[in-house]
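Backbones bend. Our protein:
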Amino acid sequence: MLKPHLIVFMVISLFLSIPQLNAAPYDRNQAVPVEKVEFGQVASVRNITEKQLVEDQNTGWKTFGGALIGGVVGHQFGGGSGQDVATVLGALLGAGIGNRYGDSSYYQELKLVEMMITLDSGEQVMVIQDLDQGMIFNVNDEVRVVYLKGYVRVDQQM
């Protein structure tokens, strides 16, 4: 029979193996300091897609959880040294299953827009950003290039 503290430990291990959602790099209603703003015209626009591998950050916990559950199940069989062997084999089998089937990595398709912008200074910059269906860019659109800490955003001039 399983001991209560072992059951609690298994439940906690399984809870920790649930994948966490990736947080956005900024909050929607957060004020972000602007480093620089430049104005220009869109010289070219190209919609592109990019596949990005989203890797599971909890694979180790899933392997550990599988080993723990396999060891507990294996411990239920045999007696004496046979029980020890069954426990070890159950842990190894559980770890293998947890590692193989616990991997929830997947490919995410990103819709992006690539723009070549001719700034009012005459300089050209290329910006690739997420496609926003509410803000579609065309050649010769007047835009502003907003430089924020760590990234750049292009918006239509109002």
The beta strands are 34-54, 106-119, 124-130, 142-148, 151-156. The two ends are 71 Å apart (CA to CA).
